[in-house]
Amino acid sequence: MRVRSSLPTVSMSYVHAVCTAMDVPPATIGALLEQAGMAPGLLSQPGARVTERQFAALYRLVVAYADDEMPRLFSRPLRPGALKFTCLSLLDARSLAVALHRWSHVLHLLQDDFELELDATQPISRVALAQVPGGRSCKPVALDLMLKLIHGVASWLVARRIPLIRVDFSFPRPSFAGEYQWLYPGPVRFDQPQTALHLEASYLQMAVRRTKVELNEFLRRAPEDWLFVSFKDELLSQRLRDHLAQQLPQPVTAEAAAVALHVSTRTLHRRLGDEGTSFQRVKDELRRDMAVQKLTRTREPMAAIAAELGFDSTASFHRAFKGWTGDTPGVYRGRARGA
């Protein structure tokens, strides 16, 4: 089976932060990791990577274990079915602004830790999570996942990936901050006064386009369709990543890539810098993620994988992969098969 996907992977540092915040006993998390197709030992290896599908499977398992759609992240659990009935209440809203206003009332009924605030009076609108006076302080992961849920559902409702002017988080910059490049379609800032999304007000006037029939498929795939939304139309780094994936195993220079993407080489480097990355980093992360996909989902020989990813030898592939993850490809594949 050939895997040509350029989908990003998720760092175990991020997975570990999520599992820790969900307060599930280590022994239980180990069992759930195995059920999701991940070796429990990977949780202690920050350099390891897992696929989006594996992370989504783990999230669903923790939801079932905790009987909570935001597992133990808030003072009151969101029982399974909360997201479904929330979305049902939004489907007949005449615009996204009305839908988000309704959602703020639903959240007020469901939990006591924060309020959803919508400011649509300015050209740049703000959707914020404000702590309830006297309420429990929200964990950073709780704010992250709730904000991602709001953005993912909002994008789904209008059937369009909503680009963001910026994303603010009230907590300090975590060690895995690089993961947010793939989770949010806009620059992310930390240590801000309030956790919030900033977007053009015109998006809030867009009509809600989804139906009850479409909602069933959206929920069946949850959390994939709200956590891992594709934003390749907005980010140049994603467009570059997809272009490089199509050209493998042939090497591509920054100059050639700029021509293919219809920008100057200088603009390519500048915009990648604005997105918090670089040409070499995009190239390395693409090959790393494709290697993880192949090692966990296929039985291709190491030499074949190295050749498909554009390495001149198996040895150079081994050195690069160990630099990316801390493990050799063989050890990494062995752990995946063990799981």
What can you see in these coordinates?
With 339 residues, the chain is α+β, with helices and mostly antiparallel strands. It folds into 3 domains: 9-66; 82-225, no CATH class; 236-338, Arc Repressor Mutant, subunit A, CATH 1.10.10. It is 50% helix and 9% strand. The strands form 2 sheets. A 5-stranded mixed β-sheet has the order 3-4-7-5-6. Strands 1-2 form a two-stranded antiparallel sheet. α11 crosses α12 (265-274). The chain is globular and about 60 Å long.
Element layout with pairings:
Blueprint: E1 9-11, H1 12-21, H2 26-35, E2 49-51, H3 52-66, H4 82-90, H5 96-110, E3 114-119, E4 124-131, H6 140-157, E5 166-168, H7 180-183, E6 188-189, E7 195-200, H8 212-220, H9 224-227, H10 236-247, H11 254-260, H12 265-274, H13 279-297, H14 302-308, H15 314-325, H16 329-338
Parallel strand pairs: 5-6
Antiparallel strand pairs: 1-2, 3-4, 4-7, 5-7
Domain HTH araC/xylS-type: 238-335
Organism: Caldimonas mangrovi
Keywords: DNA-binding, Transcription, Transcription regulation
